[in-house]
Amino acid sequence: MAELRVKTRQTGATAVVGRTGFPQVTSVTGGTLDIVTGPSQAGFGPLDLLYASLASCLVLSARIAASRFGVLDRVVEVSAKVTGEKAQDEPSRVARFNIEFAIRGDIDDAVRHAIAEAAEEEICTVSNTLRGHPAFVSKVSG
């Protein structure tokens, strides 16, 4: 029997901010992002990154779902727009994620819905994590 090999990618990020200025985030693989904090600044703020993580995971997961359903060759493009609504009470958090899928291609609406559901409910690590209650393990140093 052939051994299944799963390729893994290092994951993680470090954010650094000084007494003044804006945070900079570096991934363990060397990618960098400058974070914005002003409401009118172009770029990504912390909540934008949360929405971007969910959106990108969903489109990749939808592509996987389309492949599983045998229709990937008929899919032209998948997009997922993610926004959210903050809770009105404490603690500060997102109370609701709004997701708009667009799946372009020669497939019917039932298959589009099945792809979106499989992506959101089964395949996407980010949506599955947000639905759960992951543990936070912190260490503080000087």
From TrEMBL:
Q: Which InterPro entries match?
A: KH_dom-like_a/b, OsmC/Ohr_fam, OsmC/Ohrsf
**Protein name listed in UniProt:** ATP-binding component of ABC transporter
- Molecular-function annotations in GO: ATP binding
Which terms are listed as keywords in the entry? Answer: ATP-binding, Nucleotide-binding, Plasmid
| Transcription regulation in keyword set | no
Q: Does the keyword DNA repair apply?
A: no
Give the superkingdom in one word: Bacteria
Q: Which Pfam families match?
A: OsmC
